[in-house]
């Protein structure tokens, strides 16, 4: 008989702080998805009488000699929605695995979403571009943009407060997992930081590439299809390979990862210069996307530099026994779960009553395993 879906079965601890953390994330996802969904509807309504553009819809302007399309704005709204789903994944993983590093990363990611919403409001209402000017008289759109910023601001404060509580609550987990070996505990900290950084790298690089391919590059430009067909999936494969190299401690693969990541900042610096130097104001392909792309390039560049440094630290820790310690802990935990399941099958009534109040601890683990 299948077990009912509960917070405990999803890996959410019984702690009120952990469940509040997940609750805030769920409420924010619901609010932002609803707001951005309506923003997309408003955008489509405004453009419904537009002239067809390169991607099949939009408005053509003679003054700027370029296509100003509704997807130029819809892409930003979709990124908001995807960012919220990514944030929810970060929060759930962090709480389920009691990962304080990822809890902090999720809080910082929410602040980045707040900054992104400020950029969007600036583009629409404070210093609007020629195409964003179509929203100037739309009061509903202005209210929606302000509401988005308010939601992110309130949730950022809530996440910060809950992060402090969870940091104190989960701070002992590393000791329980790896014991008192200081070298292993330090190595595990860098291991967790790199795992979190790689997840953030995937999100920001893909988001940047999608914006570049859909908003700046032209359909007739081969670079567009190279970006969509090669660069985006290639970067995902590369970063997944990085996860694998870290987990199994493959030195040669990790060296390749470090070298490739170390060379990539040259590309982002080149794109920054290209976006801002020698641009024809009458035919500016970055007119509506410069602020957004600059934000993603700066964040991605900073993440890559930090990732390279942390990757080197993790590489130096290969071979000290961290991989074996993690595998041993996972094996002991799996054995504990198997023992609990066996007891449950032998005496379901008694086991059900006990398991409702069961909390995983090192003491319980030793008792069951011994």
TrEMBL record:
Cellular component terms per the entry's GO annotation: Golgi apparatus
Presence of keyword Secreted: no
Coiled coil (UniProt feature): none
InterPro entries hit by this protein: UPF0658_Golgi
Transmembrane feature ranges: 20-40, 73-92, 104-126, 146-167, 193-213, 225-246, 253-273, 293-312
Keywords from the named record: Membrane, Transmembrane, Transmembrane helix
Protein name according to UniProt: Uncharacterized protein
Organism field: Coemansia asiatica
């Amino acid at each position: 008989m299948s077990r009912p879906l509960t917070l405990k079965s999803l890996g959410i601890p019984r702690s009120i702080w952990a469940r509040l953390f997940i609750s805030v994330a769920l409420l924010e996802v619901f609010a932002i998805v609803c707001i951005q969904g309506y923003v997309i509807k408003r955008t489509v309504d405004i453009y419904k009488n537009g002239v067809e553009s390169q991607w099949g819809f939009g408005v053509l302007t003679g003054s700027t000699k370029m296509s100003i399309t509704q997807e130029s704005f819809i892409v930003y709204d979709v990124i908001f929605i995807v960012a919220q789903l990514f944030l929810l994944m970060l929060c759930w993983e962090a709480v389920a695995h009691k990962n304080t590093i990822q809890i902090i990363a999720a809080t910082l990611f929410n602040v980045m979403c707040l900054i992104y919403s400020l950029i969007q409001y600036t583009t629409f209402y404070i210093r609007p571009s020629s195409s964003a000017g179509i929203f100037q008289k739309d009061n509903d759109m202005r209210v929606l943009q302000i509401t988005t910023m308010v939601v992110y601001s309130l949730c950022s404060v809530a996440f910060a407060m809950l992060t402090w509580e969870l940091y104190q609550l989960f701070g002992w987990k590393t000791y329980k997992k790896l014991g008192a070996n200081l070298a292993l505990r330090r190595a595990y900290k860098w291991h967790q930081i790199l795992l979190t950084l790689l997840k953030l790298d995937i999100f920001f690089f893909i988001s940047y590439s999608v914006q570049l391919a859909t908003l700046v590059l032209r359909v007739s430009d081969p670079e567009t299809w190279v970006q969509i067909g090669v660069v985006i999936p290639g970067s995902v494969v590369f970063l997944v390979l990085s996860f694998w190299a870290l987990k199994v401690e493959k030195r040669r693969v990790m060296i390749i990862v470090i070298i490739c990541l170390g060379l990539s900042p040259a590309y982002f610096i080149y794109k920054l210069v290209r976006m801002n130097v020698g641009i024809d104001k009458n035919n500016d392909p970055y007119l509506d996307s410069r602020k957004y792309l600059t934000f993603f390039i700066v964040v991605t560049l900073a993440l890559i530099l930090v990732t390279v440094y942390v990757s080197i630290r993790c590489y130096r820790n290969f071979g000290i026994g961290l991989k074996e310690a993690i595998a041993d802990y996972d094996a002991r935990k799996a054995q504990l779960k198997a023992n609990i399941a066996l007891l449950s099958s032998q005496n379901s009534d008694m086991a059900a009553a006990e398991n409702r109040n069961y909390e995983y601890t090192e003491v319980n683990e030793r008792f069951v395993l011994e």
